[in-house]
Structure formats: structure tokens, C-alpha cells
Design goal:
Bound molecules: adenosine-5'-triphosphate
CATH topology of the largest domain: BirA Bifunctional Protein, domain 2
Strand content: 25-35%
CATH superfamily of the largest domain: Bira Bifunctional Protein, Domain 2
Shape: globular
Number of domains: 2
Amino acid sequence: MPRSACGGARNDKANMNDDLMQKIVALCKRRGFIYPGSEIYGGLGGTWDYGPLGVELKNNIKRQWWKDVVQLREDMVGIDSAIMLNPKVWEASGHVEAFTDPLVECKVCHARFRADHTRETLEHEKSHDGKVEWTQPQKFNLLVKAYLGVLEDKQSEIYLRGEITQGVHVNFKNVLDSTRVKIPFGIAQVGKSFRNEITPGNFTFRSREFEQMEIQYYIDPKGKEDQKWFEYWKKQRMDWYLSLGIKKENLRFRDHEEKERAHYAKAATDIEYNSPFGWSEFEGIHHRGDWDLSRHEQYSGQDMKYRDPDTGEEYLPWVIETSGGVDRAALFLLVDAYSEEGGRTILKLHQKLAPYKVAVFPLLANKPKLVGLAKKIYQDLKQDFISAWDDRGNIGGRYASQDEIGTPFCVTVDFQSLEDEMVTVRDRDSAKQERVKIVDLKSYLHGKID
Ligand code: ATP
């Protein structure tokens, strides 16, 4: 096995990073962001369930992405294709033949690993005191098989989609025929993908069931503008992550070398995140040429060409794709937002992404007047913001509890509120408190959050 630089002796930084991941995994479970899949039955490798806070975070990410890439643009439309596609789609796309990872097996205990994941294989060698022999790498196809129909035979065998991309390309003509799009334009999609990953791991980073958010952007190949569009989308996607508050020093581009790229890809770059387990792929930006449309034309026998409405000219467009993982976004946003300051654990999530925008507390739970006013404010705020209610323990404990899940604002109703119709609003990151009139509370919060 090749030896990688990251396989050296454990150092302080590595231990700190392991510690950080453990804290995040524990926080996710304890506070209801992410649970191991099918946990009561001992789990199912590479699957995760999102809890009450996790589903809010994930929905916020997807909603923000959709708003920025579809709703606010004039050159984009969205679709939601089926997860189960005609198996010919995967023959045409090349997945049946080439969607493989190199698999090696430990001859001692028969554990299986990805040959190119040197950190895992090295750790495995250490667990056998270095006395490991490996099989030669074999190609292992990642498509997940399923049966559709009443017979479990070859004819009813299908694949769960290994990427959401193909559901867009097979609908290229439908979108052209049913909308007013004109090249250059893009089709966006968000949805689940399934891969029989050999070594799922690093929490949700590599799962067997995960969500992707993708843009397929169609351009005219003759315009010689492909490099321009490729650079444009690289910048757009990097700027998007920065706009969500991810620290600049934790993001970088990594261009793929030619030997790394799929044979049809004319260019490929990853946006990587500086994660506790090293720089890791966050999103890919790929120049796919006309690979997908030409293959679907060939395999389906249907004409997939675009007809220019002004010149009448027909051609197969080229595609620039951006493909990001929703689960990786949720994980890296949590990692990036996690901080410990003066004994406080704070998730400094962007206001737009925080599961709860505001929490409302009556100072004391046994004072009906305080509770009544606080409930009224809570019910009113709920109309505009996802809001939390907490009347347990002391105020300090309630602040700490909201900081840990990233709630940007806490509103406390105290005895003074009954007199002056004002409440205390406390800011998560600065811990500063401000008195705000109850009648102005909604517009105050809109001003901070929207
Ligand atoms: P990797 O090299 O990490 O296996 P990939 O290059 O195969 O990823 P793509 O096929 O380009 O990934 O998928 C696009 C995006 O989908 C990735 O950048 C990632 O965010 C997400 N993704 C891919 N595989 C997984 C997975 N197993 N679990 C979670 N997210 C994934």
C-alpha cells in the first residue's frame, strides 16, 4: 500500500481534531441534530437520521441554496426528478461500467477498504502491528441495486440513483419544450443519492445515502466561453459558502489533475474544506462537455439537441456542473461554527441557517403574568420566525442551552416588562443585552435576521 504523509505519529493537532469531532458528534446526538441511522437495531453502516434541529438546519441550507441559485436568477429553473430511473440511464451515463472505486481486502481479517484511502488502510495496518497483507485492488461498483416490480429477477433490477445529475439531463428536452429558457441557462436540483461506499466514515462526510444540490448549466460550445463560465461558477459557489459565514481560511480550490478526471471531463475543481480530518471535498465544479446529452442521444435514440430560436442552428450544448453535498454542508457549517469561549459552547451559525431564530423565556416559570405575556410574544414571533420556548431552570442555563444550538437571539420577559412593555433581547455572539419595545420586536428581529 502507498504510504501517505498523514499516516505519521499522532500529534497534538490530530488529537485536538479528533476531540473536536467527538464533541460535535456528541452535541449532534444530545441536542437532536443528527442520530445514527436505525440505532435501536444496532445501526446501518453509512446512514444517518436528522433530528428536530438537524432537519431545520438542512432545510435552511437547501432553501437558501434554492433561493440564491433559482429564485433570484433569471437564467435558472429547477426540477425534481425520480430517484428510480430506467436502468438504461446508468448504462448511458457510464455508471454501470465505470462508477467504481478500487477495493482492497486485508488477508488477515477480510476487512475491506478503498485502496486510495491511505489513512484508513494505514490505521488498519497499525491495528495488526503492521502485519497485514493486502489483495490486489479490484474495481467495486458503487451503484445500489434494488428490485422494482413483483418479480425479483434480472428484468426488475434497477439502481437507486448514484448521482442526481442524470435526472436533469434526461429531462433536458422536456424543460426546453415546456419553458422559455434560452442558452446559456441552468437546471437546478436537490435530492438524495445512494452509493455503496466501501468505507463510509468521518461522521456524515461519507455516507451511503446522502443529499446533493446541483446545477447543470448549459452553454454554447462554439462561443469559446466555456472557460469563462467554468471560472464564473467556481467563484459563485465559493462566494456562496463565504456568504454563509464559513471562515475564508477554511476554504480552498483544488484543481484536479488530468489523470484524476473522468475521461470526458474537460476541467474539474473541488472546493475543499479544512476539516478536522484534513482538507476534504465539499463541492465539485466540472466541465462535462456534451458527454451526458450525447450519450443519452445515442442510448435513447432521441434527439437531444438544442435549437437556437434566433438562428435555427442545432447543437448539443456543453455543460458546466456544480455538485455539492447537503450533508457535507451541514457538517462543515457545524464544524466551522463550533466555538468554546469563557466556558460557553457556542454554535455561531449564520442567522439564516440557525434552526431556531429566537428563543422566548419568562424570567420565572411560576409567575402567571410573566408566563402569559411571554407566551403571547412567543405565539406572535412564531408567525415569522422558527422560535423556541424555555421556562426551565435559571436564565443563565437557558442562554447556555440556546448558545449550544446556535439560536441567535433570546428574549426575556421580566417584571419590568409588565410595566414598560419592553423585553430584554440578548445576542448570542456578543452576549450583549438590549431593551426593545414589544411592539418593535418583530421588526427589530427582521432587521437582524433577514
Ligand atoms: P469523493 O471523492 O469524496 O468520493 P466524489 O468526487 O465522488 O466525492 P461527486 O460524485 O463529485 O463526489 O459528488 C458531488 C458531491 O456530493 C461531493 O462534493 C459531496 O459533497 C457529495 N457527496 C459525494 N459522495 C458523498 C457521500 N458518500 N456522502 C456524502 N456526500 C457525498
